[in-house]
Automatic annotation (TrEMBL):
GO terms for molecular function: ferrous iron binding; manganese ion binding; mannonate dehydratase activity. InterPro entries: Man_deHydtase. It comes from Pseudotabrizicola alkalilacus. One of its GO terms (biological process) is D-glucuronate catabolic process. This is Mannonate dehydratase. It holds the Pfam family UxuA. Residues 47-70 are annotated as: Disordered. Gene3D superfamilies: Divalent-metal-dependent TIM barrel enzymes.
């Protein structure tokens, strides 16, 4: 499953299909209108990295759990380009770098 992470008004969400239960929220809380459950990127990644490590230890070919930022910030040339709102390349790369930074910090945390 591809996990999409979005930040809306400073709150980070794991975006899942409408009315699906989030596997890491207490009680699998969902927002029926948007299918969002509020939790931090740290919470999401700290629950997924042990699973990814178990997959890698089992020598599975699909050991990496794919993640991507759902939307990016309009920064640098994204402010002047005529592109789809929320999908600037540089902003999404920044979001991906944030995800990778959290993953690296969690890996070093032990």
């Amino acid at each position: 499953m591809l996990h999409r992470v979005s930040t809306v008004f400073g709150q980070t969400y794991c975006l899942r299909g409408n009315r699906q239960r989030c596997p890491i929220c207490p009680g699998g809380v969902t927002n029926r209108k948007r299918g969002r459950c509020p939790h931090t990127q740290h919470t999401l990644l700290s629950s997924r990295l042990p699973q990814q490590n178990r997959r890698k230890a089992a020598n599975r070919a699909d050991w990496q759990i794919p993640m991507r930022p759902d939307h990016g910030q309009d920064i640098l040339d994204g402010l002047t380009r005529k592109a789809q709102p929320g999908y600037p390349a540089i902003g999404r790369l920044k979001g991906l770098a944030e995800l990778r930074g959290i993953m690296t910090a969690l890996a070093h945390q032990g």
